[in-house]
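Appendix B, record 7
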Amino acid sequence: METTRQSKIARLIQKEISEIFLGFTRSLQQGILVSPTIVRISPDLSVARVYISVFPSNKEQEILQLMNEKSVSIRHDLAQRTRHQLRTVPTLTFFLDDSLDYLENIDQLLNA
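Structure tokens (predicted):
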């Protein structure tokens, strides 16, 4: 179960990472939308698991690999943005959020 501090830090990280992603996707290509859907923080606040949603979905693996390669740069940008709120910035690991695909699959099964 998440503590109040973990959930507050997770919300802060999600908000700031979404703004960082906006800058990254502008520099990559037009027509790609990357958004963090869930951020989970470890109890010791040292690791953050960021689940991302990518549109269009055919570029998911490419964007996920790019984000994991750029995680040090993203962490640095995050540290610059949150230097007055956080003492240490957690290590970031990125994962694909497939909940929308799962919901779409369930919807198709129910309509069939």
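Remarks on this record: Strands lie at 33-41, 47-55, 91-96. The chain is about 55% helix and 20% strand.
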